[in-house]
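Deliverable D2.4 — example input (structure tokens):
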């Protein structure tokens, strides 16, 4: 069944359809929440909030406006922003590769990539939340510009502007990265 069919059945409180949706999307939602907040344990709670909201509000999803997965990521984004506003501080914790596994060949390459990944994640957490969200959706989650723009509720042009500013800020912050490689 498609996400759309499952969401429609979930709106009728079909628990089996809902479980399938959760299983299909939980990893992607978790990865987004963890990257945006920088806090893996809080990301687990945020993912629960996202899927609880899906269960309660599946009937509000409008398939003509957004595909289900985009709507789901809009919910995740809103919940992460609310979390960051409540905390009123920028997250400073970086994610360890063990928390978001990314298989790499060879121990030397793995150690080198981990160091670079920690540094990039650290600088990513310093970006404004909109730039960070745009980068996470586009580059970490693999959404197209159109999909990421829809999730963020901005035009494609505005998304490209966020990406450009975010990349420029990262490039400035990571200017000495060549010595890491």
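Example output (designed residues):
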């Amino acid at each position: 069944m498609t996400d759309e069919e499952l969401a429609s059945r979930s709106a009728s409180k079909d628990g089996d359809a809902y479980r399938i949706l959760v299983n299909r999307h939980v990893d992607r939602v978790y990865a987004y929440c963890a990257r945006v907040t920088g806090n893996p344990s809080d990301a687990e709670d945020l993912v629960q909030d996202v899927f609880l909201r899906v269960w309660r509000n599946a009937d509000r999803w409008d398939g003509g406006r957004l595909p289900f997965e985009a709507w789901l990521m809009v919910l995740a984004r809103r919940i992460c922003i609310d979390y960051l506003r409540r905390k009123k501080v920028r997250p400073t914790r970086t994610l360890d590769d063990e928390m978001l596994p990314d298989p790499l060949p060879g121990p030397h390459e793995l150690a080198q990539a981990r160091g670079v990944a920690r540094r990039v994640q650290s600088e990513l957490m310093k970006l404004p939340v909109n730039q960070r969200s745009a980068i996470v959706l586009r580059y970490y989650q693999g959404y197209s510009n159109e999909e990421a723009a829809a999730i963020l509720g901005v035009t494609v042009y505005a998304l490209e502007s966020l990406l450009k500013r975010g990349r420029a800020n990262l490039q400035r912050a990571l200017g000495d990265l060549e010595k890491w490689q």
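Helices lie at 3-11, 15-37, 40-57, 68-87, 107-124, 129-140, 145-152, 156-173.
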